[in-house]
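Ticket closed. Logging final result for UDP-glucose 6-dehydrogenase.
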Amino acid sequence: MVKICCIGAGYVGGPTMAVIALKCPKIEVVVVDIFEPRIIAWNSDQLPIYEPGLDDVVKQCRGKNLFFSKDVEKHVAEADIVFVSVNTPTKTQGLGAGKAADLTYWESAARMIADVSKSDKIVVEKSTVPTESLLVAGKPPKGQKAIQALKDVYAHWVPAERIICTNLWSAELSKLAANAFLAQRISSVNAMSALCEATGADVSEVSHAIGKDTRIGPKFLNASVGFGGSCFQKDILNLVYICECNGLSEVANYWKQVVQVNEYQKTRFVNRVVSSMFNTVSGKKIAILGFAFKKDTGDTRETPAIGVCQGLLGDKAILSIYDPQVPQELIQRDLSMHKSELDKPPHLRPVNAVAIEQVTCVGDAYEAAKGAHGICILTEWDEFKTLDYKKIYNNMNKPAFVFDGRNVVDIEKLRQIGFIVYSIGKPLDAWLKDMPAVA
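Final structure:
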């Protein structure tokens, strides 16, 4: 039996290995992590990560050919293939700070593999790859054997024509470029959303029209409060750093703008909230619906909700936050810790986050909105489309505002109820037309 060990039981390592175990029943898969609470959670009925269908996959394989352990060195030594899925955050200090990837944890894992190995290993740097394809890279001649071994694993369920073999740099740049291009589309439509608001155009109509052009296509053209997730910003900044290291300053500046527009969109949203509510939210309760960076996940890494909430807190708002999959302790941690602390592995972070008095987390949207002056929708959870907004309106302070950062609500229906509604890139409410766009 081929043995696979994955170092890192986070958002990449855990789900990836669960799928490999499901698709390859004759391969023994062990996920290891030095953070014991995470391993305990993977071995329990309450997994540390939420993704639709993940719970069923883990329960189907766990104890058969899928195992979770904190005994890192033992399982690395026994493995034929070692996947490394550790954190590679953006450096916060030193050479390349703010752009280059911090490979501290990767180097530590690599040195440990070398120290404990008594036999040949295939070491795989596991990361996200372009949709519906798989990149496998290596150096000849031994690299070809490693490539074939890895292809044999994925060939259990990935069609051979979708397994793409490249050299190392092509694989690296393909990964960075894929995320950069996707983020670029989001920033492009978000830039258009600002212009739509200024002119009276509807960004959804513009997106639909240009998406009909087969050269463009309809995906990733939904205007929003901004993109999030662990990879988009990090990979673009890494791409910027590589460009600068190769003397390509114009190319680097081009990609920087994608991140800058994303930051602008979050700031623009906060400014719209504050300026609409008589230029102050001090002491006002604001309901935050959604904190994850997208629906169907509990992942809050780089979520635009952090920037929006911090902007509102900076104006002394009182926040009541509801997300169906993000626990209170994670929200408090994200809002109270500096990004450099959040990027550290769990065992290296401060034990307890300092609770922010202006922030409370509640169990449903109705409780969040009760007594609020405004609602900010920051994640496109399906349940936010079907809420009883009449009931919500009746329990809010007046005038009652809805700021839809994901374009999920029926604007006209809410306006008929009595709400003042702002939706990204949509024609402005009569109230908002008289308010400055910048606080």
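The first helix runs from residue 13 to 23. No further action required.
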